Amino acid sequence: MDRAKTKRDFPTRIRKKQYLKSLFYFFVFGLVFNSFLWANTIWIERNQTFIQVPINWTPTKPQEKVFYFDQWKLIIYCKSFSRGEIFYIEILPKDDTPNVVLKDYTHQVYYKTMERDIPLNQKSFGYNGIYVFPPELKESKNKFIWIIQNPNKEKIQKEIELNIYLREFPYSDTPLIFEKKILPPEKQKELDERIEKEREMKKIAFSENLPNLFSNRLSHPRDFHYITSEWYKTRIHQYYQIINKKKIFSQPYKSIHRGLDLKGNTGDIVYALADGKIVLSAEMYYEGNFILINHGNKIFSGYMHLNERYYSENTYVKAGIPIGTVGATGLAIGSHLHFSVWIDGFVADPLSIYSLPIR
Ligand SMILES: [Zn+2]
């Protein structure tokens, strides 16, 4: 009898063990799976660049063009070599075993078509720089001059020609209609003064020159990728005023959308694009709660209509940290994030930066 009992008990113990085992796996996998659902962003690695992206979006791989000159090679990376896109340059010794001492040479890249110098940063591997093919480009043939100065202060130069695709930008002829309230003269004067004061604040914030602050880390500004209004889209604006209970419409006018609108509910997190210094954090008439980050070399990123701002001016931030939340402050129709990038005074396609192997 005892033996029979033992025999009967044996499978029960096994079943109990298996039950505990499956309970254990249920919790472990449950935790892993749930954390995957909760985490809406993920850090991905591209060459030596780490990018925080929403799990529903992946940046496209860049195209690259390589030029050789003397003992050097210059590589230009760009999402698709189209106007509006940000590009990344690296200058490296031509051979794997360089016989050149980096610091003994200076490089200059002059963007002849735009008549601007591209700021270059000295790195352990060579030189790098970030710039933009402005959306205003009219010529598809773009010229650059690459100037190298050797240890004897002798200069040599090479002309580089690049074909840039003059892509068409989106256009919408459905007018965006908004009411322009008629204010009593003293209120109007107050508002005009406020707008003027804020224009001055922006001018000062944009004028500060900082050295390169980019690291090898970048971040999408949201944890969910959904575009509600495309970058550089031409839109029709029209306003009306109510005079004697009647809507009087203005003449419709065209306006270019100089940022990218991303969907978000009030309170959703907004992340910093890259390392930098907050040079403006204020509530403004048009932009609402506005954060402007200076990334050095005249590269800026802006986050508008925020509900909350987590940092004040003069704070240094890292790529991917939460800097505030989505909102509908300022002149905004509904909650969303308006995200802008400026390079040397030109507006740039913000999403094109995530294709670049910045290090
Ligand atoms: Zn916008």
The CATH architecture of the domain at 63-163 can be named as Sandwich
Helix content: 10-25%
N-to-C SSE series?
HEEEEEEEEEEEEHEEEEEEEEEEEEEEE
Proportion in β-strands = 35-45%
The distinct ligands, each listed once, are:
zinc ion
Index terms:
359 residues; Immunoglobulin-like; 5-stranded antiparallel beta sheet; 27 strands; globular; disordered N terminus; binds zinc ion
Describe the structure.
The protein is α+β, with helices and mostly antiparallel strands. The chain has helices spanning 2-38, 185-207, and strands at residues 41-46, 49-54, 63-69, 72-78, 86-93, 106-111, 116-118, 121-122, 127-132, 141-149, 155-163, 171-179, 217-219, 227-229, 234-243, 246-249, 253-256, 260-263, 269-271, 276-284, 288-294, 299-306, 308-309, 316-317, 322-325, 336-343, 346-348. The strands form six sheets. Strands 14, 18, 20, 21, 22, 24, 26 and 27 form an eight-stranded antiparallel sheet that branches. A hairpin with a 2-residue loop joins strand 26 and strand 27 (346-348). Mean pLDDT is 91; it is low at 1-8. Zinc ion (ZN) binds at residues 229, 257, 259, 261, 338. Zinc ion binds next to loops.
